[in-house]
Specification:
Elements (H helix, E strand, L loop, with lengths): L12 E4 L9 E4 L5 E3 L2 H10 L5 H6 L8 H10 L27 H12 L3 H4 L1 H11 L2 H5 L3 E3 L8 H8 L3 H4 L17 E5 L5 H10 L4 E6 L2 H9 L1 H8 L5 E5 L16 E7 L8 H11 E14 L5 H4 L2 H5 L6 E2 H11 L4 E3 L4 E5 L2 H7 L4 E9 L4 H4 L10
Parallel strand pairs: 5-6, 5-8, 6-7, 8-9, 9-10
Antiparallel strand pairs: 1-2, 2-3, 4-12, 9-13, 11-13, 12-13
Helix pairs in contact: 1-3, 8-10
């Protein structure tokens, strides 16, 4: 059988060679200049839906969309995975979503979330509490809480410093993260940011993955998404090209309902002070494990506690919004990861102490100490065969 990059459908596409760790060529449709992964099933699906594609070419591939075998089925379901769906950025796409994969409305998704989370009434309101907090918060109002992470930004690699320098000011001013879970060497990868907020990390990741990569930011807060989408034009001018960067509304517990995310579709998942905001962290981790490809990585920064938190701290609205109320006891988090399938939990760097200056907040948390920790989790079907058991760094 001929290699996939010699399939007949390629005659209707221009080819870009794979870069970084990506295994697939990138395909550019000759009729509408739409770019997608160079997998024949997806390319055929796109031609079937392309409004500029001649009818005789559509007929040539008629009946092949979602054809036989495992590959054909995947193409039919996921062929439009880079589409911009109505409601994501206010503009309708010329490539409508496949009828096999309908996106749930925000209201339906929230109803499913409330039913599936199955938590006591105080936790059922977490979504609304967090959304309300981040809709109203401003840099000045947030500073009044006086919570800071010691040493944040220290030791940034040069590529990240340059990428952060290109982030639009309005986006950077609404950054509320506790770390920098952005590894180097990710050119050409497909990245998703959970709870992206105003999108600072998404913009930096878009610079790091380059024109051949893609970044998807997922958040449930309309106000934050409005700010995130508003800076894309300015960012593209600074880069000199239009990045594959988009922001979609969704819930991080239900990544399978987010357009463009499906099993094994993501190389790198990042998150910054968002997992702690979830009322069901196990659902988040299971969703990440599903969308990551084999060998993919989940690198994320969050706040952790040195003990289990009492109910009055876990339910405090401001502490929830600041990722303190949802902070897990570190050892409980490790056990949760292993239960989901992330067998090896690694720290990317030393924990950073969280300083709480506000007297009323210090009184609420009592003797509990909080740290910002960036963890690295890897998806392997057989982790014992893929990872060193002693984490040897060979003196590096």
């Amino acid at each position: 059988m001929a290699p996939k990059h010699f399939a007949p459908v390629w005659q209707h596409y221009d080819r870009h060679e794979p870069t970084g760790r990506s295994k697939h060529h990138r395909a550019i449709c000759k009729f509408c200049k739409y770019e997608l992964s160079g997998q024949p099933e997806r390319m055929k699906t796109h031609l079937q839906r392309c409004s500029n594609c001649p009818a005789d070419i559509k007929d040539e591939f008629a009946g092949e969309e979602g054809g036989g075998g495992g590959g054909g089925g995947g193409g039919g379901e996921n062929g439009g995975y880079m589409q911009s769906f109505p409601g994501d950025d206010g503009e309708a796409s010329p490539h409508p979503p496949s009828p096999k994969r309908r996106r749930m409305s925000a209201e339906a998704m929230e109803a499913v979330a409330a039913a599936a989370v199955q938590m006591p009434p105080p936790f059922a309101a977490v979504y609304e509490s967090v959304r309300g907090y981040y809709s109203r918060v401003t840099p000045i109002r947030r500073a009044a809480l006086a919570v800071a992470v010691a040493g944040r930004g220290r030791g940034r690699h040069a590529a990240l410093r340059e990428a952060l320098g290109l982030v639009p000011r309005a986006v950077g001013e609404r950054f509320y993260g506790c770390g920098e879970p952005l590894p180097a060497g990710i050119e050409g990868l497909r990245v998703v940011d959970l709870g992206c907020g105003a999108g600072r990390d998404c913009y930096a990741a878009a610079r790091l993955v380059g024109p051949a990569g893609e970044v998807i930011g997922v958040d449930m807060t309309d106000e934050q998404l409005r700010v995130a989408r508003g800076g894309v034009g300015e960012f593209a001018r600074a880069l000199g090209y239009t990045p594959h960067l988009r922001f979609v509304k969704g819930y991080i517990e239900f990544l399978g309902q987010v357009p463009g995310l499906f099993g094994g579709s993501i190389d790198l998942c990042i998150s910054n002070s968002a997992v702690n905001l979830s009322p069901n962290k196990e659902l988040v981790l299971r969703g990440v494990f599903d969308v990551l490809r084999e060998g993919g990585e989940f690198q994320f920064a969050d706040i952790y506690a040195d003990r289990r938190l009492p109910p009055h701290v876990r339910s405090h609205p401001a502490l929830l919004g600041e990722s303190l109320g949802g902070a897990l006891y570190t050892e409980d988090f490790r056990r949760l990861c292993q239960r989901v399938g992330f067998a090896d939990v690694r720290m990317a760097r030393a924990p950073a102490r969280v300083r709480i200056d506000a007297p009323d907040v210090r009184e609420l948390v009592g003797a509990t100490r909080f740290h910002s920790i960036t963890f690295r989790l890897f998806k392997f079907a057989r982790p014992q065969a893929a990872l060193e058991p002693t984490r040897e760094d060979y003196g590096q």
